[in-house]
Each structure stands twice: as C-alpha cells, then as structure tokens.
Design goal:
This protein has six helices and four strands; from the N terminus they run H-E-E-H-E-H-H-E-H-H. The protein is of the alpha+beta class and 144 residues long. A four-stranded antiparallel β-sheet has the order 1-4-2-3. Helix 1 packs antiparallel against helix 5.
Length: 144
Amino acid sequence: MQYGWSYRHEQWVGARQLLSGRQWFKSRYAAGYESTIPSQPGVYMIVLLASEALEPSSTWNAMRAPVYIGKSENLHRRFKEHVYERSHVGNYVRELPRLRYYYCIVDKKELSEVEGQLIHIFGPRVNRNQPVVLRATIGTPIKI
C-alpha cells in the first residue's frame, strides 16, 4: 500500500464514480459522541483538521487529512471500540489534536470496495501501520 495521497488521476476518477451520490456525515472523534453514530454498515474516516494541529487561521481551515479509513457492519459499535477500548487505531491517534469522524452509510456488499478505494486514494498512515495478522485454515487432509 502506498503512503500519502494518490497522484494517479484514474484512481480519483474511479473514487468519484464509486462515491458519487453518497452522503457523508461527521462527528467529533471523542468520548460522548457515540450517540450521534448510527448502528448501520458503512465506511468511516478518522480525519485530522490542519487548523487544529497547527494554528486556527483561515489558511488551514479547509485542509483535512484522513489518518485512518475503515469499514464496519455497525458504525456505532466500531466508533466505541476505537474511542473507549483504545484499539490499535486509538493508540496511534491518541496524541493528535481533536479529530473528526466522517462516515457514510454503505450496503454490506459494497463495504470492502468503498473502503479499498478510499485507502488507495488517501493512503492514510495509520492503515499502513496496522499489525500483520496471519490467518490459516485447516482444509482436507492430504492423502499420502
């Protein structure tokens, strides 16, 4: 996975087509705001506002940088996991200034596609730093 925003035009065009017509909502990324997040499937971005990290001036007000992008079959539950249980994401963003939580309701069958497209165009740093998880399955025994 690349780190940082994509410079490939075709990725932005693909994202625009996939995300067109979807409504995004935002909330503070902090304890006490979980009641604003629905218990529906969707994708979400934990976003740093440049004006909060640097200085509150008009120069920085419009700049936003997603630090983590994820998907969940229950956005409300996932929000609480990040904020209260200090998931691996919470550990990475704990020291950052105030963050915003942007989310979009997405049908379950589209979750991976929408999340993947967002990760490809924004390349958020925390997604890159996730621990590697190895999964194995036991299949049919091999006859010798």
